[in-house]
Each structure stands twice: as structure tokens, then as C-alpha cells.
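User: Run a structure prediction on this.
Assistant: Running it now.
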Amino acid sequence: MPKDQTSKWQSDWLTRGYRELNKAWTYVHQHVYIKRFLFAFFFYSAGVQTVVYLASSFAKQELRFETGELIVVILLLQLVAIGGAFLFAYISRKTHNFYAMKIMIIIWSLICLFAYFVYEQMEFYLLATMVGLVLGGIQAISRSSYSKMIPKDHPDITCFFSFYDVIYYLSIVFGTFLFGFINQLTQSMRLSVLALMVFFFIAFLIIRTIPNNQMRNE
């Protein structure tokens, strides 16, 4: 493909992407509860993904885990995550998505608190079990809740999920940056993990302001 055609294709692709996101943002900006949900999602995703991405670094630096031991932790986490997803799907069906979400956010906060006091490898295995319990559930229920809040009959429903994904990746950048900044400032990964509780606290407060009837019953 000639260079000028490639540049034009890339420019068109970027323009289309911007229009898609702007379309979603325009709608979200006009609907306060969807906007609140996405703000909450941004904060608790920043906490969740930072814990997941940097757990191995914490285990190596603070608890002297070897690579083989970390593989066991990852396998344990994934196995428990399957059961956790089913558990919170059940809780969500019996109560409400937001109720299940608030329980999981509280558990994530406790994970950050407990991580500060973990000094033994066996304690970290227990912590990994807690992470697995809420990891799969919070991802599934977040997307499910969002899909029930956006308009079902919108002609371009994909733009809303593109917008959702952008917020998700921005939260990862924000969370890991803040974790690294606090770690650099304090020279303590434990304090960095503890600071992540603030993300979950903010998210919990925002979720509490969203009425249950903002989601469609499907």
C-alpha cells in the first residue's frame, strides 16, 4: 500500500475512533447515573488491576517468592476465580448487581488492608484466595451492570463498549502510576498497596448513590 494511502487510512481510522468515543461520551454526559457508574468503575478498576498486575512484584520483593511458587499462586487464583464468579452471579440474581458489587468492593478494600500485614508466604496464599474470590465476579458484574444501563435500542451500541474499554485501560495507567509514585516516595510497597484502599472507598461511595432501578430487568 502506498505511503499516502496508508497515512490516509490511519487518519480515517483515528477520526472514526474519535467520533465513536465522542458519541458515547455525549450520551453518557447527559445521563447522570451512567456517568456515576463509570466514575466508580474507573476507581475500583484502578485498584483491582493494580493489585493483579503488581501482586507478583509484591510477593517477590516483600516475601521472597520464587518463580515456581508464583506459578502456584496464579493457578490458585484462577481456580478460585471460577468459583467466585459463580458465587457472585448467584448473589446478584438473588439481590441486585449493585449489592453484589458493593460486597466485592468491600472485600477488595480488606485485601489491601490485609496485604499490609502479610509477612508469611502462607498468608499470601490466603490473600490470593481472597483475590480469586472477587476477581472474576467484579469483572463480569461490572460489564453486565453497564450493559443494562446503556440504551438497548441505540443504533451504534458498540461505541458504548469502546468507551467502557478506554476507561478500563486509563484506570490501569492511573492505578499503576499512583502505586509506583507512592512506592518511589515512601520506598514501601506495603504503603502503596494500603493506599489503593482509597480507590475502593471512593468507588463504594459513588455506587451507593446509584438507584437500583437504573438497570433494566432482563
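The longest helix spans residues 32-63.
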